[in-house]
Specification:
The protein has 341 residues and is of the alpha+beta class. It folds into three domains: 96 residues, Rossmann fold (3-Layer(aba) Sandwich); 129 residues, ATP-grasp fold, B domain (D-amino Acid Aminotransferase, Chain A, domain 1), CATH 3.30.470.20; 69 residues, Dna Ligase, domain 1 (2-Layer Sandwich), CATH 3.30.1490. Strands 8, 9, 10, 11, 12 and 13 form a six-stranded antiparallel beta sheet that branches. The chain has a four-stranded antiparallel beta sheet with strand order 4-7-5-6. Strands 2-1-3 form a three-stranded parallel beta sheet, with helices on both faces.
Length: 341
């Protein structure tokens, strides 16, 4: 297992002057550019997220433009000089910090976590190591590259995995989201296929112990008093919370708020806020975890760009909290703008 590690704090993000200090005087309301799409496996989810957020922000009086991540993006940003950018990109480039690095270089403020912390969270084993260093529980795991199976022989490595982790276990790519390439393995004979499916989405596999319990997602939003957890969302999916279960209506049952006792709800909220702080996240995040029968909350992963589709978990949490979704999104934008004034 990787040894615990600390996450470096994000430096201050350079940004443009506020609207009130603009010299041209032409813009009466803030201009927001929502980035959606990209070329990852999660392009469709990103587009759906981007459209919904853009529509919600427009109802609050903001001027909002939606743009893909393509060769026209940098010229477009230089020409329009938006007041803030909201990257709603899932998968590579959107969550690995690279697009955020570019936004920093061109001097545009944006919603969400900075590039350094994004890179930590994007790599699941590194994020798990940081969580362990902060005293936050996460399932036991090993990380193995595809080349190791070729060098040492597949079967001896598979046998060692089974002895070390045991069954049931979960195989997933070290980078990526939306449960792509993720398999829950309950029988030894299914492990080889799970590894093949995992390596279709990345060169390195994270193999972790499967934890039984209540599957939950806890979204965190930063307010004036710091990060606060929204009501947790309970996920009940037959056959696992895979890609179809996440984005096909009727495949999964959600309970928002989750069916927890007051003590359990307080526990998972505390864990999500602690994870948000430990990983130096900014503005918003979502922590996925399992609450086991013994009362331990095991963090599976943390997301710097939570989905915002009609079935996504953060919007469900907002609804359960009684807040208006568009108003909350506007507050997130205002917070990003305030940071550069």
């Amino acid at each position: 297992m990787t040894s615990p590690a600390s996450v470096p704090a994000e430096p201050a993000t350079p940004g443009l002057p506020s609207i009130s200090s603009r010299s041209d005087g032409a813009r009466s309301v803030p201009l927001v550019v929502v980035l959606a799409g990209g070329l990852s496996h999660e392009r469709d989810v990103s587009l759906r997220s981007g459209r919904r957020v853009a529509e919600a922000l427009r109802t609050t009086g903001l001027e909002v433009l939606l743009h893909d991540v393509d060769a026209d993006l940098l010229p477009f940003l230089e020409k329009t000089r938006p007041d803030v950018v909201w990257p709603l990109l899932h998968g590579a480039s959107g969550e690995d910090g690279s697009v955020r690095d570019v936004l920093d270089m061109v001097g545009l403020p944006y919603v969400g976590t900075g590039p350094r912390a994004s890179r930590v969270v994007w790599n699941k084993p590194i994020a798990k190591s940081a969580l362990l260093g902060a005293g936050i529980a996460t399932p036991d795991y090993v990380t193995l590259p595809q080349s190791l199976f070729r060098d040492l022989g597949a079967q001896p490595v598979l046998d060692t995995i089974l002895r070390r982790i045991g069954l049931p276990l979960v195989v997933k790519p070290t980078e990526g989201g939306s449960a792509l390439g993720v398999t829950v393995v309950t029988r030894a004979e299914d492990l080889p296929r799970a590894m093949v499916e995992c390596f279709a989405y990345g060169e390195t596999a994270l193999i972790e112990r499967a934890v039984e319990g209540i599957e939950l997602a806890v979204s965190v939003i930063e307010g004036a008093d710091g990060p606060e957890a929204l009501p947790s969302v309970e996920i009940v999916a037959d056959g696992g919370y895979d890609y179809a279960a996440r984005y096909v209506a009727g495949e999964t049952e959600f309970f928002a708020p989750a069916r927890l006792t007051a003590d359990q709800a307080a526990l998972v909220s505390d864990v999500a806020v602690r994870a948000h702080r430990a990983l130096h996240l900014r503005h918003l995040s979502r922590t996925d975890l399992i609450l086991d029968p013994d009362g331990t909350a095991h963090v599976l992963e943390v997301n710097v760009a939570p989905g915002m589709t009609e079935m996504s978990l953060l919007p469900q949490a907002v609804a359960a909290s009684g807040h208006d979704l568009a108003t909350l999104y506007r507050a997130v934008i205002d917070r990003a703008l305030t940071a550069v004034r």
